[in-house]
Protein backbone atom coordinates (compact mmCIF):
# COMPACT_ATOMS: atom_id res chain seq x y z
CA UNK A 1 0.00 0.00 0.00
CA UNK A 2 1.37 3.40 -0.86
CA UNK A 3 1.44 6.21 1.68
CA UNK A 4 -1.55 8.01 0.12
CA UNK A 5 -3.61 4.81 0.27
CA UNK A 6 -2.52 4.30 3.86
CA UNK A 7 -3.54 7.87 4.66
CA UNK A 8 -6.99 7.42 3.11
CA UNK A 9 -7.63 4.16 4.97
CA UNK A 10 -6.46 5.68 8.25
CA UNK A 11 -8.77 8.67 7.76
CA UNK A 12 -11.76 6.39 7.18
CA UNK A 13 -11.03 4.38 10.30
CA UNK A 14 -10.40 7.48 12.42
CA UNK A 15 -13.74 8.97 11.36
CA UNK A 16 -15.43 5.78 12.55
CA UNK A 17 -13.56 5.91 15.87
CA UNK A 18 -14.52 9.56 16.30
CA UNK A 19 -18.19 8.65 15.83
CA UNK A 20 -17.93 5.89 18.46
CA UNK A 21 -16.45 8.37 20.92
CA UNK A 22 -19.18 10.92 20.17
CA UNK A 23 -21.77 8.24 20.94
CA UNK A 24 -19.97 7.55 24.22
CA UNK A 25 -20.29 11.24 25.21
CA UNK A 26 -23.99 10.93 25.99
CA UNK A 27 -23.27 8.54 28.87
CA UNK A 28 -20.61 10.76 30.51
CA UNK A 29 -21.63 13.60 32.81
CA UNK A 30 -18.24 14.63 34.17
CA UNK A 31 -16.45 17.32 32.15
CA UNK A 32 -13.01 15.92 32.99
CA UNK A 33 -14.02 12.44 31.81
CA UNK A 34 -15.30 13.93 28.56
CA UNK A 35 -11.99 15.68 27.94
CA UNK A 36 -10.15 12.42 28.64
CA UNK A 37 -11.85 11.07 25.53
CA UNK A 38 -9.42 13.22 23.53
CA UNK A 39 -6.59 11.10 24.96
CA UNK A 40 -8.52 7.97 24.07
CA UNK A 41 -8.81 9.24 20.48
CA UNK A 42 -5.06 9.90 20.41
CA UNK A 43 -4.41 6.31 21.50
CA UNK A 44 -6.77 5.07 18.76
CA UNK A 45 -4.78 7.08 16.22
CA UNK A 46 -1.53 5.41 17.28
CA UNK A 47 -3.15 1.95 17.44
CA UNK A 48 -4.65 2.33 13.98
CA UNK A 49 -1.30 3.30 12.47
CA UNK A 50 0.26 0.17 13.97
CA UNK A 51 -2.66 -2.03 12.91
CA UNK A 52 -2.70 -0.72 9.33
CA UNK A 53 1.06 -1.08 9.06
CA UNK A 54 0.81 -4.65 10.28
CA UNK A 55 -2.07 -5.43 7.88
CA UNK A 56 -0.01 -4.08 4.99
CA UNK A 57 3.33 -5.61 5.94
CA UNK A 58 4.95 -2.27 6.71
CA UNK A 59 7.76 -2.17 9.23
CA UNK A 60 7.31 1.21 10.88
CA UNK A 61 10.95 1.24 11.99
CA UNK A 62 12.33 0.57 8.50
CA UNK A 63 13.73 3.44 6.48
CA UNK A 64 11.31 4.86 3.96
CA UNK A 65 12.60 4.54 0.43
CA UNK A 66 11.30 6.15 -2.70
CA UNK A 67 12.95 7.48 -5.83
CA UNK A 68 13.04 11.08 -4.65
CA UNK A 69 14.90 10.33 -1.42
CA UNK A 70 17.42 7.76 -2.66
CA UNK A 71 20.06 10.45 -3.05
CA UNK A 72 18.79 12.46 -0.09
CA UNK A 73 20.88 12.16 3.07
CA UNK A 74 17.78 12.58 5.25
CA UNK A 75 16.60 9.09 6.15
CA UNK A 76 13.17 8.87 7.73
CA UNK A 77 11.37 5.80 8.98
CA UNK A 78 8.02 4.72 7.64
CA UNK A 79 6.53 5.76 10.99
CA UNK A 80 7.92 9.29 10.64
CA UNK A 81 6.64 9.59 7.08
CA UNK A 82 3.20 8.24 8.04
CA UNK A 83 2.92 10.57 11.04
CA UNK A 84 3.92 13.51 8.87
CA UNK A 85 1.40 12.62 6.17
CA UNK A 86 -1.48 11.89 8.56
CA UNK A 87 -1.10 14.47 11.33
CA UNK A 88 -3.35 16.96 9.54
CA UNK A 89 -6.14 14.37 9.44
CA UNK A 90 -5.72 13.65 13.13
CA UNK A 91 -5.67 17.36 14.03
CA UNK A 92 -8.84 18.05 12.04
CA UNK A 93 -10.73 15.15 13.60
CA UNK A 94 -9.54 15.83 17.15
CA UNK A 95 -10.63 19.45 16.73
CA UNK A 96 -14.09 18.29 15.60
CA UNK A 97 -14.22 15.92 18.56
CA UNK A 98 -13.23 18.72 20.94
CA UNK A 99 -16.06 20.84 19.54
CA UNK A 100 -18.52 17.99 20.19
CA UNK A 101 -17.24 17.59 23.74
CA UNK A 102 -17.40 21.26 24.62
CA UNK A 103 -20.77 21.87 22.94
CA UNK A 104 -22.41 19.36 25.27
CA UNK A 105 -21.56 21.47 28.32
Task: Describe this protein's structure.
The chain is mainly α and 105 residues long. The chain has helices at residues 3-25, 31-55, 78-103. Helix 1 runs antiparallel to helix 2. The longest helix is centred in the C-terminal third of the chain and has 26 residues, at 78-103. The termini are far apart. 11% of the residues are buried. The mean pLDDT is 89.
SSE blueprint:
Blueprint: H1 3-25, H2 31-55, H3 78-103
Helix pairs in contact: 1-2, 1-3, 2-3
Key features?
single chain; 105 residues; mainly alpha; 3 helices; 70% helix; elongated
Briefly summarize what is shown.
The protein contains 3 helices and no strands.
Strand coverage percent: under 5%
Q: What order do the helices and strands follow?
A: HHH
The global form is: elongated
How many beta-strand elements? 0
Whole-number mean pLDDT: 89
Question: Poorly predicted ranges (pLDDT <50, ≥5 residues)?
Answer: none
